């Protein structure tokens, strides 16, 4: 497993090598403020106790409380958490929201736990985290394999432990507990806003653009749905186990409706090559495809929306798409990034494309603190404003300095973080 934190720092150093950043500011970002390791004992349904490894990395609180998701996955590691926390610091600076960066996780395959075990694990993790999180300290949110229900358990346990009503301690919670309208779809919706603006800036017609999306969870589904609604043709979709491609969508037909695929997935438990409505099976339109094949499909746009390091030296040369819109965090290795850049493929980087999630998390936190709630339309308008504002600044830096969107995004983040360091006297 490559050291993901070193990979993340490579991206930062590439931007810093342009010579516009104070080396001391760069050095400050190379070290997370705090790395927490926990052991979480959980009483399993059979009465036995199992121990799980938990992490929280608080990378930087320069611009505000630590902010970042919690993931449950079998491969969670300290280096991965550090990288993801660092990306949150960068992303919140690009989004220009008053947060620092953090990330947490538990090494567990949640699919192997019962709902009761998952709840006890979450409450145990919250007990371990309790002293280190809070509305003005560190604000968790959902990430891979965690959702609103898990955030509700976290909130409940935190409130029991502190004796305070504290909805702003966590975002991505259910709406009856103070969650925000639009949070669930925010990451995908935000990605669609950025991608769509890029497509329009380059005079391309969305209705003629074909898209393949890898990952069909919160982000992948919402992104596919948002692009489908804007007229893009979704011709490939995959989750961790399976995928489908729609060859007819590349012709005159409109491509797949992600909602339809979701319904079928919910029925069958997986994305499959055949979709049966009543007795009629549609095996003609949809062919089976693996998540790996999906990335090298002959399409205009690929959207990695699952996990890190899926675009590597090995497959970067084979990518046929003209645009890669990174919705997962860290889906492209630095080596692959260089290959894509050399081949003239545009990468809309994770720290810009997927910032819609943390942006609406910030809206949720702001509503909780003020004791107000905004309508879905208000959230939508504000999200669009924020996404477009960040996209335009990054685009203009990229044009001016003749650098990639990723390097431009890092330059923007570095400038904002350096200004905060200077204002606090961290650097002179
Ligand atoms: P999720 O758990 O809801 O969904 C993950 C999806 O990826 C699932 O469909 C899973 O089957 C699939 N998957 C896992 N491994 C895969 C593989 N090797 N190939 C293909 N598919 C695979 O998680 P999510 O919240 O949608 O997060 C996805 C990515 O987006 C992560 O990198 C996460 O850090 C990032 N992200 C999430 C948010 C958010 O708001 N949830 C915000 C910003 C970034």
From TrEMBL:
<protein>
    <recommendedName>
        <fullName>Glutamate dehydrogenase</fullName>
    </recommendedName>
</protein>
<dbReference type="InterPro" id="IPR046346">
    <property type="entry name" value="Aminoacid_DH-like_N_sf"/>
</dbReference>
<dbReference type="GO" id="GO:0000166">
    <property type="term" value="F:nucleotide binding"/>
</dbReference>
<keyword id="KW-0520">NAD</keyword>
<comment type="similarity">
    <text>Belongs to the Glu/Leu/Phe/Val dehydrogenases family.</text>
</comment>
<feature type="active site" description="Proton donor">
    <location>
        <position position="103"/>
    </location>
</feature>
<feature type="binding site">
    <location>
        <position position="361"/>
    </location>
    <ligand>
        <name>substrate</name>
    </ligand>
</feature>
<dbReference type="Pfam" id="PF02812">
    <property type="entry name" value="ELFV_dehydrog_N"/>
</dbReference>
<dbReference type="InterPro" id="IPR006096">
    <property type="entry name" value="Glu/Leu/Phe/Val/Trp_DH_C"/>
</dbReference>
<feature type="binding site">
    <location>
        <position position="67"/>
    </location>
    <ligand>
        <name>substrate</name>
    </ligand>
</feature>
<keyword id="KW-0547">Nucleotide-binding</keyword>
<feature type="binding site">
    <location>
        <position position="91"/>
    </location>
    <ligand>
        <name>substrate</name>
    </ligand>
</feature>
<dbReference type="InterPro" id="IPR036291">
    <property type="entry name" value="NAD(P)-bd_dom_sf"/>
</dbReference>
<feature type="domain" description="Glutamate/phenylalanine/leucine/valine/L-tryptophan dehydrogenase C-terminal">
    <location>
        <begin position="180"/>
        <end position="425"/>
    </location>
</feature>
<feature type="site" description="Important for catalysis">
    <location>
        <position position="143"/>
    </location>
</feature>
<dbReference type="InterPro" id="IPR014362">
    <property type="entry name" value="Glu_DH"/>
</dbReference>
<feature type="binding site">
    <location>
        <position position="187"/>
    </location>
    <ligand>
        <name>NAD(+)</name>
    </ligand>
</feature>
<dbReference type="InterPro" id="IPR006095">
    <property type="entry name" value="Glu/Leu/Phe/Val/Trp_DH"/>
</dbReference>
<dbReference type="GO" id="GO:0004352">
    <property type="term" value="F:glutamate dehydrogenase (NAD+) activity"/>
</dbReference>
<dbReference type="Pfam" id="PF00208">
    <property type="entry name" value="ELFV_dehydrog"/>
</dbReference>
<dbReference type="InterPro" id="IPR006097">
    <property type="entry name" value="Glu/Leu/Phe/Val/Trp_DH_dimer"/>
</dbReference>
<dbReference type="GO" id="GO:0006538">
    <property type="term" value="P:L-glutamate catabolic process"/>
</dbReference>
<keyword id="KW-0560">Oxidoreductase</keyword>
<dbReference type="InterPro" id="IPR033524">
    <property type="entry name" value="Glu/Leu/Phe/Val_DH_AS"/>
</dbReference>
<dbReference type="InterPro" id="IPR033922">
    <property type="entry name" value="NAD_bind_Glu_DH"/>
</dbReference>
<feature type="binding site">
    <location>
        <position position="218"/>
    </location>
    <ligand>
        <name>NAD(+)</name>
    </ligand>
</feature>
């Amino acid at each position: 497993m490559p050291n993901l934190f070193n990979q993340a720092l490579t991206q930062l150093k590439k931007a810093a090598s342009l010579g516009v950043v104070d080396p001391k500011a760069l050095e400050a970002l190379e070290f997370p403020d705090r790395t927490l390791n926990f052991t979480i004992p959980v009483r399993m349904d059979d009465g036995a106790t199992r121990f799980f490894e938990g992490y929280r990395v608080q990378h930087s609180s320069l611009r505000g409380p630590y902010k970042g998701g919690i993931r449950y996955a079998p491969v969670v590691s300290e280096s991965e958490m550090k990288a993801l926390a660092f990306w949150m610091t960068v992303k919140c600076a690009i989004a220009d929201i008053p947060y620092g960066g953090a990330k947490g996780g538990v090494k567990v395959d949640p699919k192997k736990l019962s709902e009761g075990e998952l709840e006890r694990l979450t409450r145990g993790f919250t007990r371990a985290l309790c002293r280190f999180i809070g509305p003005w300290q560190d604000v968790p949110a959902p990430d891979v394999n965690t959702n609103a229900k898990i955030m509700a358990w976290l909130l409940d346990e935190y409130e029991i432990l502190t004796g305070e009503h504290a909805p702003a301690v966590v975002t991505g919670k259910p709406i009856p507990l103070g969650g925000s309208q639009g949070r669930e779809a925010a990451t995908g919706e935000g990605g669609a806003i950025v991608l769509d603006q890029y497509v329009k800036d380059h005079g391309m017609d969305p209705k003629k653009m074909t898209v393949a999306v890898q990952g069909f969870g919160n982000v992948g589904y919402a992104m596919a749905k948002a692009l489908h609604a804007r007229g893009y043709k979704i011709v490939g979709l995959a989750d961790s186990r399976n995928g489908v491609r729609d060859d007819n969508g590349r012709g005159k037909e409109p491509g797949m409706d992600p909602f339809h695929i979701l319904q079928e997935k919910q029925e069958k438990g997986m994305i499959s090559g055949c979709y049966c409505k009543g007795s009629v099976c549609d095996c003609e339109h949809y062919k089976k495809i693996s998540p790996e094949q999906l990335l090298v499909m002959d399409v205009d746009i690929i959207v990695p929306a699952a996990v890190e390091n899926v675009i590597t030296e090995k497959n970067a040369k084979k990518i046929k798409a003209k645009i890669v819109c990174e919705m997962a965090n860290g889906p492209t290795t630095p080596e692959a990034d260089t290959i894509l850049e050399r081949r003239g493929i545009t990468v809309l980087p994770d720290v810009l494309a997927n910032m819609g999630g943390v942006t609406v998390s910030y809206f949720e936190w702001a509503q909780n603190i003020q004791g107000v709630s905004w309508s879905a339309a208000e959230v939508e308008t504000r999200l669009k404003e924020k996404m477009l504002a960040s996209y335009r600044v990054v685009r203009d830096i990229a044009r001016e300095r003749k650098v990639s969107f990723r390097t431009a995004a890092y330059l923007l983040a570095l400038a904002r973080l350096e200004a905060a360091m200077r204002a606090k006297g961290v650097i002179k």
